[in-house]
Amino acid sequence: MKTELLKRPIVRNLLLACAIWSGWSSASASGSEEITEDVVTEPTQSRRPNIVLILADDLGFTDIAPYGSEINTPSLTTLAEAGVSFTNYHTAANCAPARAMLLTGVDNHLAGVPNIPEMLAPEQRRHAHYQGVLGNNVVTVATLLEESGYHTYMAGKWHLGSGPGKLPSQRGFQRTLALADSGADNWEQRPYIPLYDKANWYADGQEYQLPEDFYSSRFLVDKTIEFIDSKPPESAPFFAYLPFQAVHIPVQAPQEFIDRYMGVYDSGWDKLRQQRLKRATELGIVKQGVGTVRMPTTEDWDALNDERRRFEAKRMAVYGAMVEAMDFHIGRLISYLKETGQYDNTIFIFTSDNGAEASGPEDPHAFGPSRLTDTLGYSTDYETLGLKGSHNTISPSFASAAASPLAYYKFYVGEGGMRVPLIIAGKALPLKGVLSHSFSYVTDITPTILSFAGVSPPGDRHGGRPIEPITGHDIRPLLHNPADRVYGADESVGYELAGHAALFQGDYKIVFNRPPLGDGQWRLFNIVEDPGETHDLAQAMPQLLQRMLSAYDTYARENKVLPIPAGFDNLRQLTMNTLHASARTPVLVLLLTLLVLLPFYVFYRTNKVHS
Asked: Which residues are catalytic?
């Protein structure tokens, strides 16, 4: 009976937590020890770990040094050397759905966030679970940790609702400094697109005015340290959620960081993509000989004139600078925890909400006075690019390099939109500096955090009301045996965004990307051998394709996925929602109309160049 009890996952997780935090991990770092029936006591409050969850925004698969980047990220490199880096981790293809799953362990459709609210169609909003804000039918990991005695803090981008009961201060976080919008300026309190009248920041649930010396990455780490420092380290463990604005539009960074990348990208995106592939291969992030797809949205670097190449190289230089600035401030947080004696008992989880952002125009100057950012007073001048008052993006061409060697990027369900870095690190972990190639998913983060904390996941009720149960898996076993699997060979994980769809099963993935960039056909790939999605196996393995299509239908039905309206397009819907939100000037209406037409213009240019 006792042996059978030990086989139950929840019991094994509790035993594992107990073993690690009672000092077992240091004795078993070689992997020679096993959990025995004698380890039965739950870890005491003082031995439970602090947990820091760091979320980058729109960071590509190879945008940090441990994954093959030329960008200097010593803090993240140190974390990678202190734990396990996951090479086959997947998230949602855009921000709010990813954050909903990250913080609840529940599929984003059931959690009320099928897409960002800014891109939902009126036909979809008629349904309660298609509001684009976190539903009351799910419980956040912060709530569960707070109830178990943790201090809970958040500083950064929320984007899961700001109405009654929706701010993070009402979803389990005791201290908060939160940006409610999809993004905002990194230097001052102003919106980055005309959809918002202002940048909506909240402190502990109240509207907040940013300080004059604001820079997002520095300020968010300052606040995180302030929150942690407000309680004695011995009082209780803490959970700190740090969702950066970096490297979401507008891409901005301090001049001293920009200077380090001037000239680095003068050879263009194709060379950068190949350099990152080579380095990722050397590091073991991807296998030798991985194929790549050159996206049709990637321009011919050599065909650009000197002025345009100079401008593009600086756009990417600011991007690299913003990543390094984020890493620098992560380093400040790590140093603070070391100085206060809290580092040794802290688990760090670092990842990104989705793949690289490719919505920036090919050439911002090509739109002249019709540039969307002109209405907000931004500049795209070369000399001040990335500084205060500047609006910067990277183009689809460099976004493909940021996702190297993967295909597609944000908003699409190719690997470039969904596969991102994941690092789990900490002094108490048994393995250091190793890779796990096992499949993992964004819904796995919440149950993994709960496992570290020794907190049982809720069932189908919480706080006297029914809730959606957690569907993600605890991936802590991969921290002890990176070659293990937490998903069975026949176990499926489905995903849908605005008509784009994917399903993972074992080493395989079926994927459906809508036009204009996709072809509207289901494709089948072995993403372990072929992460670049270059060899469609649909014809060679028709039975597997059909089984996975059937599994996707089941996923869509069980998670209440709604069909998209006829003619739906993310950017066009964003424009229509902006116009509907409030009365706008004729000039702005013209600008937004041009934005509606932009994807079709890009598609036309793409086909013309490649025809």
From this structure: 95, 159
